[in-house]
Amino acid sequence: MASGVHCDIEEHRRGEVAVVAVTGTVDSVTTPQLEAAIATAAANRPAAVVVDLLAVDFLSSTGMGVLMAAHADITPAIRFAVVADGPATSRPLKLVGIADVVGLYANLDEAIDAVTSGGV
After folding, report:
1. pTM score of the predicted model
2. DSSP conformation class of 102
3. Residue limits of the STAS domain (predicted)?
4. What is the mean pLDDT of each run of 10 residues along the chain (120 residues)?
5. What is the widest separation between alpha-carbon atoms in the chain?
6. DSSP 3-state of 76
């Protein structure tokens, strides 16, 4: 791994929702971790997978590609949403149009409410 680049990923459940919480940098070095974590979460067949990027300080185009691929791979069988807020995450997701395809929420509670109510 490159010096100074870190990405910590933890999965936990909120009821029937798998939450993949990411901290740090999501770039070409760390995206395989994110891709694997989302695949593992989806393999357990939750009602939904929510990727929480609130603690991410950099989201590369490669990371955005992983989110789009995950959305394409697991929906509609499993609902999918992303939590992102701020210039490092939600802004690029909106600029490139991913927020038009993937449910994007400013906090985890909003995302959980949306995926459990069938809003995504």
Report:
1. 0.93
2. S
3. 7-115
4. 73 96 96 97 96 97 96 95 95 94 96 85
5. 42
6. coil
